[in-house]
Amino acid sequence: MIVGILSDSHGRVEWVRLAVEVLRRNGAEMLFHCGDLGGIEVLDELLEIPTRFVWGNMDRPDGATFAYCQTVGLPWPEAPLTVELDGKRIAACHGHEPHARSLLENGQFDYVFFGHSHERQDTRKGRTRVINPGALHRASVKTVATLDLASDTLTFFEVSTGRVVEL
Fold first, then answer.
1. Which segments in the chain show pLDDT lower than 50?
2. Residue-wise over 92-107: b if at least 16 C-beta within 10 A, else e?
3. Which residues make Cβ contacts (< 8 Å) with residue 131, sequence separation at least 6?
4. Is 53 helix (H, G, I), strand (E, B) or coil?
């Protein structure tokens, strides 16, 4: 399975639309948004592909947001988000939460996805691969990433061109 990872859209719907298109063209079968979505309009753009997401420090979910998620079938995010896909344990958080560091250090996950810093990252902490896809707002190069869970292949894409970019 190929998952698409994006973060820090801060309500920039036009960039989210382009990002989803780039991710879909490159095989993403599921999306993970690592927070700072910036509103329901961003969630609208994520509905074409199964999506999981977390809230960021700039998100302000309320009752209307909860009702919207129920209506469109988006799971309300837990903190942290944890899933198992294709035998891989994945955690996602925004990166500002008190528990974020423990996700990296407990060794229970194959992958931890996060955002917050607006900078691409691909590192390892023990057995855990730590991935930040970059940002769709306040970044000189707006990037997203795909991760092939079967081959452990991570690829970053520049959203405006769809081209592969190096870390």
1. none
2. bbbbebeebeebbeee
3. 5, 111, 112, 113, 114, 121, 122, 145, 147, 154
4. strand
pLDDT for 23-41, tens place per residue? Answer: 999 999 999 999 999 999 9
Rounded CA-CA distance 115/112 in Å is 10
Distance CA 87, CA 156 (A): 23
Structural domains present in the chain: 2-165 (3.60.21.10)
In percent, the amount of the chain with pLDDT more than 90 equals: 89
Could you tell me the CA-to-CA distances from 85 to 28, 71, 88, 124, 150 in Å, in that order?
Answer: 13, 25, 5, 19, 10
User: Which amino acid makes up residue 135?
Assistant: A
- pTM for the whole thing? 0.95
H/E stretch holding 19 reads helix 13-25
Structure confidence at residue 105 (pLDDT): 79
Q: If you search the block for the tokens 């988000």, which residue do you land on?
A: 81
Which position has the token pair 């990433």? 145
Phi, psi of 80 (to 5 degrees): -85, 165
d(CA 106, CA 119): 23
